[in-house]
């Protein structure tokens, strides 16, 4: 049925633009977790009033990306050791099942798609582009879950997305970690290509354990 109506294009508000800009610099690691910043500083930097900045910061606090520092301002939320432990417990449990499923069902076309993702990561590594590398790393893992057909779990893991990016940026600061991650991803693909479920699970668990160890 057609109603001959034009879609409404919602204009982006100042608050939304401010929110997107602040979130981008946080997730890109441009603000250190040791820094304390204020509404005034951000408003001056963005050349806007304090109101949209305050509203954006409240939203980012609700998302768990920033925290209030009494009488000083705001800072990037530090992910605790306990939270890191829980995130990796969940990921290891889920992604082990993903490996079992994909070892039986993955197609040549899907393997090719994942290999392209690894090639893109290699380019980001050569460019020393940590932000793109982490984005592609998350994309690689989320693609595996999607290809396994675990749609509900895929949605659940989205709640970890922001924290996982903060953790990932911290992990790859270690010397050669980007190269190690790339090698581990290619090894995961090799086990899937061989349809070896046991080796695929072991390789994935070892990969996640190494990433966790890199954070310390």
UniProtKB/TrEMBL annotation:
Transcription in keyword set: yes
Family annotation (SUPFAM superfamilies): GntR ligand-binding domain-like, Winged helix' DNA-binding domain
Pfam families (alphabetical): FCD, GntR
Keyword annotations: Coiled coil, DNA-binding, Transcription, Transcription regulation
CDD domains linked: WHTH_GntR
Keyword set includes Zinc-finger: no
Domain of life: Bacteria
Gene3D superfamilies: GntR ligand-binding domain-like (1.20.120.530), Winged helix-like DNA-binding domain superfamily/Winged helix DNA-binding domain (1.10.10.10)
Residues of the HTH gntR-type domain: 12-79
Coiled-coil positions: 175-202
Protein's recorded name: GntR family transcriptional regulator
């Amino acid at each position: 049925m057609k109603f001959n109506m034009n879609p409404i294009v919602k204009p982006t508000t100042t608050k939304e633009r401010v929110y997107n800009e602040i979130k981008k610099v946080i997730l890109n690691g441009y603000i250190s977790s040791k820094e304390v910043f204020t509404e005034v500083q951000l408003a001056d930097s963005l050349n806007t009033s304090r109101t949209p900045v305050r509203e954006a910061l409240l939203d980012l606090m609700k998302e768990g990306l920033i925290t209030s520092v009494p009488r000083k301002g705001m800072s990037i939320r530090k992910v605790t050791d306990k939270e890191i432990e829980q995130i990796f417990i969940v990921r290891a449990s889920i992604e082990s099942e993903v490996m079992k499923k994909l070892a039986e069902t993955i197609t040549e076309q899907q393997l090719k798609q994942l290999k392209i993702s690894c090639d893109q990561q290699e380019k980001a590594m050569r460019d020393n582009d940590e932000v793109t590398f982490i984005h592609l790393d998350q994309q690689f893992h989320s693609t595996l879950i999607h290809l396994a057909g675990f749609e509900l779990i895929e949605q659940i893991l989205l709640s970890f997305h922001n924290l996982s990016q903060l953790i990932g940026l911290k992990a790859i600061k270690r010397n050669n970690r980007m190269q190690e991650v790339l090698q581990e991803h290619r090894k995961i693909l090799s086990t899937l290509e061989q349809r070896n479920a046991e080796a695929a699970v072991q390789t994935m668990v070892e990969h996640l354990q190494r990433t966790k160890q890199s954070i310390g």
